[in-house]
Amino acid sequence: MNPRLTRQELLRRGAAGGAFLALPSLLAACGGGGGGGDATGELKDVLNFENWPYYMDTKQLRDAAGLTGPTTLEQFDQETGITVKYYEGIDSNEGLFAKIQGPLSQGNGIGRDIIVATDNSQFPSLYVTEEYVQKLDKSLIPNFDNLIDAQQSPGFDPNREYSLPWLTGIDGIAWNEKLTGGPVTSMTQLLTDPKLKGKVTLLGEMADTVGLVLIDNGDDPTNVSDEAFDRAIKSIQDALDSGQILKFTGNDYGPPLARGDFAACVAWSGDLAQLVLENEDLKWAVPEKGGIIWTDNMFIPLGGSVPTASTYMNFAYDPKISAQIALATGYIPSVKGVREEALKLNPDAGGNELVFPSDETLGNVQMNDPKMVSNADYITTWQSVKGQ
To answer: Distance between CA 360 and CA 292 in Å, rounded?
Structure first.
């Protein structure tokens, strides 16, 4: 039984619609700044922002959330005169790193001013230690003071010199009730229920899938032993060998899940708030034994315009703006004062469990062990399980 935690306490544990970006378009920009600006101090009139799908307050999502007026990207343009070229090209942390490591390792830009990486992967630490990212200009981010206390000092960036949280989410199980005939409440059910055979997908990010299986097995995801890791891998390998698992996915699980191409999967919390707009039979929940919580973080890669990116980060950390993004996307903000602003936008917002999880929900989720996600042997084993 996990101890009941407040949101601040739980997040503190972890502290120790736009255009789709195709691979060729990113690689074409890898020879240099590619329009992404530079760190010379010049404010650019275009911001190139690379993010995950389902992660911005598009007009469709604003309408569904009952929000009126222009999107926050349009508001940013109106307020600053800076146009945002927004790309939804991140399918996985590993995939993004594979695309950009080459040019960054040579000191070249990638045509982006902001990229996003998840703290339950090895990549935030790699970006900082390999000097692939630049320091924020905090003189341009007075709203930095709005960062919640629990997110002030992550292990990969203790002084928040290089990063700011974008949004926080929870790993859980999604299912199509029309195809499953009822709820999918545990990883054991997902991995073994014969009614789901061949109709299940798992996230390819080790921390997401292995973390949930560790909890299901009764092991501690915050302090992973070799024995516990091996047990989790065996559970997943057995499901693969039996034909239970259709495939591993990145963020691309969304459209086929909405179409009914498979019945159930490991999925991220806010995505389902949006996918249900396409298929009302979709459900999502934290597994009975518990879920995994994580935070995505904004970074300024080499070649990106520090002033332009910092100006956007300051804008996004205005509680009024952060509230709009959170309510539209269904993810948890890291900005002080958002709840009050959200209630002004929608008096029922306080009951939105995805954006403002209850203490009961937070008492049933945990962070992943940073040592697990950076363990070279574990990473090799996981790649082998995925068949890569």
So the answer is: 14
For 51, the token pair is 């993010």
> CB atoms < 10 A from the CB of 1, how many?
7
Q: Please provide the CATH number assigned to the domain covering 7-168+295-355.
A: 3.40.190.10
CA pair distance 186, 194, nearest whole angstrom: 14
CA angle, 64 then 73 then 38, to 5°: 150
Give the pLDDT of residue 5: 35
Angle between helices 206-216 and 226-241 (to 10 degrees): 100
Q: Are 243 and 300 in contact (CB under 8 A)?
A: no
pLDDT band at 345 (very low <50, low <70, confident <90, very high): very high
Question: Cβ(310)–Cβ(141) under 8 Å?
Answer: yes
**Residue of 283, 195, 291, 278 lying closest to 244 (CA atoms):** 195
Q: Where in the chain is the domain with CATH 3.40.190.10?
A: 7-168+295-355, 170-292+366-385
Separation of CA 238 from chain center: 28
Phi, psi of 237 (to 5 degrees): -65, -40
Please report which confidence band the pLDDT of residue 42 belongs to, taking 50, 70 and 90 as the band edges: confident
- Which residues contact residue 261 at a Cβ distance below 8 angstroms, ignoring those fewer than 6 apart? none
- Residue-wise over 23-50: b if at least 16 C-beta within 10 A, else e? eeebeebbeebbbbbbbeeebbeebbbb
* Fold (topology level) of 170-292+366-385: D-Maltodextrin-Binding Protein; domain 2 (3.40.190)
Q: What is the pLDDT of residues 272-301, one digit of tens each?
A: 888 998 999 999 999 999 999 999 999 999
pLDDT at 54 over 80: yes
Range of weakest confidence among 29-33, 109-113, 248-252, 384-388: 29-33
Please say whether the beta carbons of 26 and 100 come within 8 A.
yes
- 385 alpha carbon, distance to own chain's centre: 23
- DSSP-derived secondary structure for 245-272: EEEEESGGGHHHHHHTSSSEEEEEHHHH
At 189, list the tokens: 């059910």
> How many H helices and E strands in the chain?
18, 11
In sequence order, which residues have a C-beta less than 8 Å from that of residue 276 and are 6 or more positions away?
A: 282
Q: What is the crossing angle of helices 338-345 and 319-329, to 10°?
A: 70
